[in-house]
Amino acid sequence: VSQSRYTHFYQEPDCRIIVFSGHGPAFSAGADLAYLQSLQNNSLEDNLTDSKALMELYRMMYDSPKVLIARVEGPALAGGCGLATLCDYCFAVPAATFGYTEVRIGFIPALVSVFLVRKIGDARARELLLSGDILDAREALRYGLISFVVPADEIEQTVDSFARNIVARCAPHSLAATRKLLAEVQDLSLDDALQLAARRNAEIRSSEECRRGIRLFLNKEPSIVTGK
Question: How far, in Å, CA of 83 to CA of 37, rounded?
Fold first, then answer.
């Protein structure tokens, strides 16, 4: 995944959903091993700079106001599995596989561990990160790692319809604000999270989008989003 390409869609105001998919039989097998080998000759400072580039991409995805969807039609391993982890929804074909395999080659699933614990909890994250196990789609679904398992001949249409339904049903600013709030409250204490949620609740009430949406709903008029 190109960070510059993602940044383009991240900054595009009319874009509400970003779908990640692979080009070819794999979703992503993670970092190129030859590239990692070349980095072994770098200084600690150089490797830290390189590592922070991925950190910034993950952080951008996590804080994104866009809804992120992964469409996985093959192996999603190591860093590739990390990309799928950062998405709000993950659709996979039955033959897809998932795994944080870094420990198998003496590497470490460092950055993704921060987000995986938040997504599936400490115990299950440990099971996956410390074993390097590779899961099939059904197992990944059981772990809460992915959202849906879809037949291969239906997945493209399924993801497209799912994304279009979100766009059709959900008010754009409300959608972005909700996703942003979900990211913000993760690192706060309960009291601080509730204070922030209350503030966001109050702020959105005065927005034109909210006022219009409630007015249309009460008057049984066309939807704020679809016009139907």
Answer: 21
Cα 96 to the chain's mean position, in Å? 17
Q: How many CB atoms lie within 10 A of CB 60?
A: 14
pTM attached to this predicted model: 0.85
Share of the chain above pLDDT 70, in %: 87
- Residue 2, pLDDT > 50, answer no
* pLDDT digit string, tens, across residues 183-214: 999 889 999 999 999 999 999 988 888 888 88
Question: What letter would DSSP give residue 186?
Answer: T
By annotation, the residues acting in catalysis are 102
CA distance from start to end of the chain: 37
146 within 8 A of 137, measured Cβ to Cβ: yes
Which amino acid appears at position 39 of this protein?
Answer: L
